[in-house]
Specification:
The chain has 212 residues and is an alpha/beta fold. The protein has one domain (3-201): NAD(P)-binding Rossmann-like Domain (Rossmann fold). 32% of the residues lie in helices and 21% in strands. It contains eight helices and ten strands. It has helices spanning 11-22, 51-56, 67-75, 111-118, 133-136, 155-167, 184-190, 194-201, and strands at 3-7, 26-31, 47-50, 60-63, 85-88, 93-95, 101-104, 123-126, 148-152, 175-179. The strands form two sheets. An eight-stranded mixed sheet has the order 3-2-1-4-5-8-9-10, sandwiched between helices. Strands 6-7 form a two-stranded antiparallel ribbon. Strand 9 (148-152), helix 6 (155-167) and strand 10 (175-179) form a beta-alpha-beta unit.
Length: 212
């Protein structure tokens, strides 16, 4: 059975956990305290562990923590993440008084690049950050086919991540490899339109895509 860890148990983390369990993965969800293992959890049957243990036990790790704190959180796991594939699906944004995302936290770089620089012995791959979390695990729910962008320096790691996406229901032709990790700047910059999309249309499934 394939194994994977997800750091973060919010809407994104729980949606990915459900999709991966359904795809046949053994999923470990990393949480801050195993003494309080999310009594309100409504997701699938998974193993809960602290972040460090979740990372140590799995070859692939998904970062679904809030993007504005991801760099600090994951930098503390540098030794545990050594030799792992890290899938970063988060967006680092500044928030307004209501908690809504409004602007990019790293406008001249990308969170993906900063994570790769902070974790040089980890293969970081950026993907799935340009869509609603429901589309991550159900890409065929939209009337227009979505695109899952990939950015990363390690070709083998990107191939591994593409296989995970295919397990989640993404046809290979819907997966777009943008190139090395500097290309994550483009994928993350796309997210700047999202607060305005949500304001205009509400909390409905969407994805930013390339139409050919």
């Amino acid at each position: 059975m394939k194994q994977i860890a997800i750091l973060g148990a919010g809407r994104v983390g729980s949606a990915l956990a459900a999709g991966l369990v359904q795809a046949g993965y053994r999923v470990t969800v990393g949480i801050r305290s195993v003494e309080n293992p999310l009594p309100g959890w409504t997701g699938p049957e998974v193993t809960f562990a602290d972040h460090a243990s979740a990372v140590r036990q799995n070859p692939i790790v998904i970062n679904a923590t809030p993007g504005d704190t991801s760099l600090e959180r994951l930098s503390l796991l540098k030794s545990e993440l050594r030799g792992k594939v890290l899938i970063d699906v988060s967006n680092a944004t500044r928030r307004d008084a209501t908690g809504a995302s409004m602007s990019l936290l790293y406008p001249d770089e990308s969170l993906g690049e900063l994570l790769q620089a902070a974790l040089p012995e980890t293969s970081v791959v950026k993907t799935l950050n340009t869509m609603m979390f429901t589309v991550m695990v159900d890409p065929k729910c939209l009337a227009t086919r979505p695109t899952a962008f990939l950015s990363g320096n390690d070709e083998e790691a990107k191939s591994t991540v593409a296989s995970v996406l295919e397990d989640l229901g993404w046809p290979s032709e819907w997966i777009e490899d943008l190139g090395d990790m500097t290309s994550a700047r483009g994928a993350e910059a796309m997210f700047s339109v999202v607060p305005f999309v949500l304001r205009q249309f509400g909390f409905r499934p969407f994805a930013l895509t390339i139409s050919r």
